[in-house]
Amino acid sequence: MNQWSAIEEAQRDVCRRFAAQFCAAPRHLKIGIALNVRDGIFPINGLRHALEGETSGWYIWAGEELSTDPDFFKPLHIEHLDEWAPQIKKYLGLPPGWRFLIAPDCEDVWFDESLLHARRE
User: Using CA atoms, how far apart are residues 104 and 26, in angstroms rounded to an integer?
Assistant: First the structure.
């Protein structure tokens, strides 16, 4: 099993645990990620909007607060996540409308219907 097959299987496992339908996030697609994710700050938060164009719909940030700065999120191809936060890759198979929050000894995953109706700027 190659690395990406193993990652997809881990994503499918997360989806099964939370009774969510698997929605692939191919490694060539982009996520929006905050620079603070590289700083080792916890918790790490993620939310997924609908896939659009070359984006997976995922937005990832670290810490308690989500900034409103329009430059807060930077585009990053999923295949480069190992350099940022490899521990989040297993959550990227969750479909649009899902969120996660992780920290050492903490994992919270939930569906947030408002994400399906949110308008991205």
Answer: 26
Per-residue pLDDT of the chain (121 residues; tens, 9 = 90+): 577 789 999 999 999 999 999 999 999 999 999 999 999 899 999 999 999 999 999 999 999 988 989 999 999 999 999 999 999 999 999 999 999 999 999 999 999 999 998 765 4
94 and 48 Cβ atoms separated by less than 8 Å: yes
- DSSP three-state, residue 9: helix
Neighbours of 117 (CB within 10 A): 8
Domain layout of the chain by residue ranges: 3-117
The token duo for 54 is: 């070359």
| 55-62 vs 30-34, strand pairing mode | parallel
Q: Residue 31's Cα: distance from chain center in Å?
A: 7
